[in-house]
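Q: What residues go here?
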């Protein structure tokens, strides 16, 4: 009876996640601050300089500028300000959920302005 040849195929290991790809908790904390109105300045000035935090700080800065413009326009055109506030709340929540998942997800309407920062 012939012997069965042993297969030499090995299971391929999953590609390991590099430590640089996984945001550490302090980076996540500063990234959370990026979407909370004026706290983006705290993240900008004192946050770590890693790619994850910088990505979210840039988006947070753009949101902050648009929120400040909304505050200035709201006494003049209240209905437009109401719609703008709703949009900024939704965009901020989307950013917070992206941070929670550890992702660098570009926000609609905001990402085209962050490329120039």
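A:
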């Amino acid at each position: 009876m012939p012997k069965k040849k042993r297969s030499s195929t090995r299971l391929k290991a999953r590609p390991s996640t590099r430590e640089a790809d996984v945001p550490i908790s302090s980076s996540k904390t500063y990234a959370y601050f990026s979407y909370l109105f004026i706290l983006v300045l705290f993240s900008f000035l004192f946050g770590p300089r890693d790619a994850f935090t910088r990505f979210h700080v840039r988006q947070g800065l753009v949101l902050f500028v648009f929120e400040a413009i909304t505050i200035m326009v709201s006494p003049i055109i209240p209905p437009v300000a109401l719609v703008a506030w709703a949009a900024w709340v939704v965009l901020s929540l989307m950013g917070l959920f992206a941070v929670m998942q550890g992702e660098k997800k570009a926000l609609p309407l905001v990402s085209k302005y962050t490329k120039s920062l």
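A: Context that may help when evaluating the design: The chain is about 55% helix and 0% strand. The helical segments are 25-33, 39-46, 51-73, 78-100, 111-114.
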